[in-house]
Amino acid sequence: MDPIAIHENYIHRDSISSGESGQLNRPEVTRLAAQKSQVSLVSNSLVLARPPESTSGVTFVCSQPDNASIAASMEASISGTIFSDSETAFNSLPESLPTIDLGFRPQKADMNDNENAFFVQNKHFFILSVAGKPIYSMHGSDEILTVHAGIIQTIVSYFEFNPDGETEQLRTFTSGGEQKTRFCFLNKAPIILMAISSLDETELQMNQQLDFLYNFLLTILSKPHIDKVFRKRENFDLRKLLGKADIACLDSICNDLANFNNPGLIIGGLECLRMRKSVRRRIENVLLAERSENLLYALLVAPGGRLITVLRPRRHTLHTSDLQLLFSMIFNTNTFRSTPEENEIQQLASNEEFWVPVCFPKFNPNGFLYSFIQFVDLKDEKLMYLHDLNMSALQQDGNPDSSKITVILVSAYKDSFFEMRKIATSIIKSLKLNRTIYRNLFKAVVGTQGANGETGAGSGKVDPVEIPAPLVQHFVFKSKKHTQFVFSRLAHLREPDENMRGQLMMLYAQLHSRFSGASRITGSQQDSDFLDESHFINLVRWKHHNDNLVGFLITTTNYELYLLTNGGIMDKKVLLRSCKNIIKWCQKNQDRLFISGGAVF
Amino acid sequence: MTTVIPHMDFDVASPRLSADFKLVLLGESSVGKSSILQRVQNGTFDDTKASTVGAAFVSKKVSKDNGDKMVNLQIWDTAGQERFHNLTPLYYRNSNMAFIVFDMTSIDSFRKAEYWIRDLETYKNDNNSSLKLVLVGNKCDLVKSEGCAFEDEIRQFLNVNPEISKYFKVSAKENVGLAELFEYVVDSVDDELFHEFSAENNGIIDLSLKKQQPSSCQC
What we know:
The complex is a heterodimer. In chain A, 39% of the residues lie in helices and 19% in strands. Chain A is an alpha+beta fold. Chain A folds into three domains: 3-49 and 108-258, Beta-Lactamase (2-Layer Sandwich), CATH 3.30.450.70; 67-105 and 461-593, Beta-Lactamase (2-Layer Sandwich); 275-459, Dynein light chain 2a, cytoplasmic (Beta-Lactamase, 2-Layer Sandwich), CATH 3.30.450. Chain A has a six-stranded mixed beta sheet, sandwiched between helices. In chain A, strands 11-12-13-7-8-19 form a six-stranded mixed beta sheet. In chain A, strands 2-1-5-4-3 form a five-stranded antiparallel beta sheet, sandwiched between helices. Chain A is globular. The termini of chain A are far apart. By secondary structure, chain B is an alpha/beta fold. Chain B has a single domain (21-192), classed as 3-Layer(aba) Sandwich (Rossmann fold), CATH 3.40.50.300. Chain B contains five helices and seven strands. Chain B is globular, with a radius of gyration of 17 Å. At the A-B interface, helix 10, strand 9 and strand 11 of A face helix 1 and strand 2 of B. Chain A: Required for multiple vacuole delivery pathways including the cytoplasm to vacuole transport (Cvt), autophagy, pexophagy and endocytosis. Chain A: One of its GO terms (biological process) is protein targeting to vacuole. Chain A: Residues 294-428 form the FUZ/MON1/HPS1 second Longin domain.
């Protein structure tokens, strides 16, 4: 047996039998220290303990053809006759509708006490205190967490103190052979966070994920509160302060991170509801008109966490990650949901109003703001009748939350609930009774009416086909100026399911990690908004059984365009033209796609 | 045992008088405050529901005296977790009635009730408030018919705390005792709180407790 594995078992047994919540006593630490070169291997054995067949569900044959050469060939065609393609040739291309399967399977947080099931997971998150007290783990029971919290604490503190008295932080290490596993640490004393990933993620990405989890703890507790409880007792058990809703929210954030389910966290930005600029302006005027003294921010949010617009003071902007945290809290758990009638599914409770203290870490990690939250269902018989909308939309089943918008009013004053409630009531009334606003919101969120009476998909999302962008299956366009992005539908109005969405985002995450940091713009520094020779096109080809996909990332100082296309067909001219079309379209429509500034007072 | 509340069954176009009545639900986490509210509000029950964060506000119109009067219940459902306790005074300030809810299977949650009673008494004395206190034992479906394991303690507690005006045993899951509880609430609305009904409060919805089932619970 591998002596290193024995070593790991030794730590394991010891921490259970001593009942010291995973704290190692001095001799063990010394023993560890004596084997400095083996410390990383100690944790390596955690990985080796996996059954061999349990490597990550995703196996890429990532043949990355010579990047530069492809870029060169595409560049060559740009200067050539890219626009000579006739429109008919364009349209005659077969539009296949593949079910792409790259082997991605979503995973879920669990409390499983089976160690084998624990080690099989390809993504882990741990939160503990610097004293080694367990706080949270994505997978595994409390017992498993307790043991590993002790190990993690030992590893972190071992590297922290050098013999020369300097302190330094262990950030990351990797282990494993073919299936590389990365370990990442974030020491935010008194809290330590660690992530393990076998999903080919970079240190930067994993660090951002840990940062997000840490910020979530700040969101619910605030920095001074955390510091206070640990100052009082170093050995404090933070789990005492976390309720079922908080754990559920941590679980769902971890699920999203592990399953690449939240594009905003990967690409960095928020998604907006696509709508006409004049309509957004009208809504902003409503917010400005109804505002009162103690209102700090107002947010209107469409299903899927897509912003409709914001109201903010001139001197304060809203930080993207603060909003991502708030949305995670509201939309990812059932705290704000209820069952309206027997045999119905849980849904956002539109007959309750909520008053929630939230710390926005980027706004101010030291204090709370108070959020009034109310959900408004646009599918309302009386209003639809009043504004001449086709009532057939009422009969559509599906997710009842897909027609609900969220009103969030943020105040610095904890006793201003009734003031906020009054504002919310007037805002909602204005939105509902203004025909233009209501009809446009309805069209964007719920859908449009076809001539034959059929209800079309909501116009709030774009389909690559409508641009048109032949060969493109899906794209994400991020405007760096707005830190907002457009997440398209799959070509031909298909809504990606959770599996598909995770798969897409996993591919984009890989593109992002491979290239976004290293994106170079050669040639002139001034940003031309269209592709030309100076743009480096990054390309990755994935293969899984018979499926074959190619992903692109085009980065300039103004935007990032991620897109996916079938690997089989590779008419570069058509593809390049599609890229150009998307970029042109997004820039032409930027006032509809992105919120610039919002309503400012 | 009937669970129908007669005066909630009337769909009244315009009552003569109306009153606002503020109610707050207090108690430790996981005793079922939100479940009680959801049962009364929607007639449903979720045992998967996560804990309340902050507080939830529900307003509910109930008609009384054959529709002659309308009571507009304004209910605060508070979070039981300790980290929200510093906010709780916001919610019971100006309230007319407080439910102190405990879990009949958890003596700890019952002992926590004492904390709330002291808190509320201090508030009442300082503010000369006429806040009514009601003790509510939830999850009575989980205890034997003769009562829960600490029935004696409850009785003694009621004896030494005469400011508790009534004690109810309910089950949000099985919909037991809630009709009586809210009947008591509506009956407690003082006549002096009623004022002429104003037209802007129109649009009364029939909010009768839905889908009542005969109960087998003997508590």
